[in-house]
Every structure is written in C-alpha cells, then in structure tokens.
Design goal:
The chain has 254 residues and is of the alpha/beta class. The protein has one domain: 3-Layer(aba) Sandwich (Rossmann fold). It has 10 helices and 10 strands. The chain has a 6-stranded mixed sheet with strand order 6-7-8-3-9-10, sandwiched between helices. Strands 2-1-4-5 form a 4-stranded antiparallel sheet, covered by helices on one side. β4 and β5 form a beta hairpin. It starts with 5 loop residues before the first strand and ends in a 5-residue tail after the last helix. The mean pLDDT is 94.
C-alpha cells in the first residue's frame, strides 16, 4: 500500500467522549488523490474519525484526543494549528445537505468572501467552475439568483460539494453523503466523487458496503472503535484477512 504518496498519516490515535474511548490506537495512511472508504456498523467511530481530520470534534464538550494526525507532514492536532486554514484545506460534506438560506450563487461566493476574496470577476469564475466541477452547472445556470432551498435533495448535496470546491481544498471528507438521497441522486454523487479524485484526496464514510466497493480505492473497517482491517478495496472485499471483517461483509452483524 505504500507505493502511493501519503497525504494523511494517523498515528497512535485515541479519542474520548468523557471517559468513553471512542477510537482506540488507530494507525493508518491515507493516500493522495485516492478514495478511502471507512465502513463499519453504527457507533463504531467512523464519523468521529473523519471529523478529527478537520478538527470538527474540537466543538464537542468533554472530548479529548491523544496521538497524532499528520497532513502533508504537519501534525494538525498541535495547538499551533490554524484551524480555520485547516478547514479550508480539508473540506467536508455532511450526511444531510445543508445549503445556506441564500441564493445558489451566494452559497458558493460566500465562502470566498469570508476568506477575504474581493475580486468579483474571480468570484464569478470560481462559482461557475465549482458548479461545473460538481456536475450542477447545466441544471442551475439560469437560476443562480434563486434560493438554494428550492433545489432537490440531490442538487442541494451537489451544491454543498460545489461550495466546498470553491475554496480550493486538498482533501474532501464525505460523511454518509448519500444517506438521505434517492438511487438516481446517489448514482450522480458517486460518479462525481469518482471524478473528483483526479484532483482531490477523498475520504468517505458509508454504511453502504456496495457503495464502498463501487467508488473507493482503499477501505478501512472499524469495529467498536478499533481499526480491524485496512487495505485495497479489492482485497478487503474479496479476501479479507480478519474473520471479523468477513463476518461484517457477509451481513451477520451491524
């Protein structure tokens, strides 16, 4: 697995909610411009793990983290980390589409403006590019001043992806991005994610094992806060090394 360039390195990572240890001694490398899926039953620590990659868990009261997460060689858990800059570099798309109650255009331009971009021509170009790169431009190009809340669920999720792309991240985290979508919208998001890996490192949490098999290059299986197995998706799904992985993939639990 080490033939690819490592972008994220997780080293001896433990995470606690109060006294409860939610992640136990996680060690893994996530590779640049590859799609890494994190699978496992509900409550196993999947979302907790990816939310550490952009320090979202800082917002959780009585939480504590031990160990290291290196992104491009820098330990993002260090007190010296600029968390605002980290979240620009590591974008996130959530389970439920969460567009701002603003126009389609402003949903995307807002993030640039917050980052002190003032050149209106540049902002307009980024809005168009982001909508094109999220496969949404043709559907909304004549509706840019309409409320984003008027879009369908699948369109709203692609708008949230466009909003993320506009600030030029290097890594995109997807936390169950298709959980609330119909099969057609799910297919569009999966095709988009596959296309985006040409430019971005992608980590996706999914309950859907078929989705992980379809889109990812690598898969990590978490169970009760532990990394049970991690490898290429093809190998993990066809010849898993751990009996617990095989049991999960066969649908016997979780």
């Amino acid at each position: 697995m080490d033939k690819h360039e490592v972008q994220i390195r997780v080293s001896n990572l433990n995470f606690f909610y109060g006294k409860t240890c939610a992640l136990k001694n996680i060690n893994m490398d996530i590779y640049k411009k590859k799609i890494t899926a994190i699978i496992g039953p509900s409550g196993c620590g999947k979302s907790t793990l990816i939310r550490l990659f952009n320090r979202m868990n800082d917002l959780v009261l009585n939480s504590r983290v031990e160990g290291h997460i290196y992104i491009d060689g820098e330990d993002i858990l260090s007190a010296k980390t600029d968390v605002v800059e980290l979240r620009r570099k590591v974008g996130m798309v959530f389970q439920k589409p969460n567009p701002f109650p603003k126009s389609i255009y402003r949903n995307i331009s807002y993030g640039l403006e917050v980052n002190n971009v003032k050149n209106k021509k540049y902002i307009e170009e980024k809005v168009i590019d982001s909508l094109k790169n999220s496969a949404l431009w043709e559907e909304v190009k004549d509706r840019l001043n309409e409320s984003a809340l008027m879009l369908s669920g699948g369109q709203q999720q692609r708008l949230c992806i466009a909003r993320c792309l506009a600030v030029e991240p290097e890594v995109i985290l997807f936390d169950e991005p298709c959980a609330s979508l119909d099969p057609i919208s799910t297919r569009k998001i999966e095709e988009l994610i596959t296309e985006l890996k040409k430019q971005y490192t992608i980590v996706i949490v999914t309950h859907n094992m078929q989705q992980a098999a379809r889109v990812s290059d690598y898969t990590a299986f978490l169970y009760l806060g532990e990394l049970v197995e991690y490898g290429t998706t093809e190998k993990l799904f066809t010849v898993p090394e751990n009996p617990k992985t095989e049991e999960y993939l066969s649908g016997k639990f979780g």
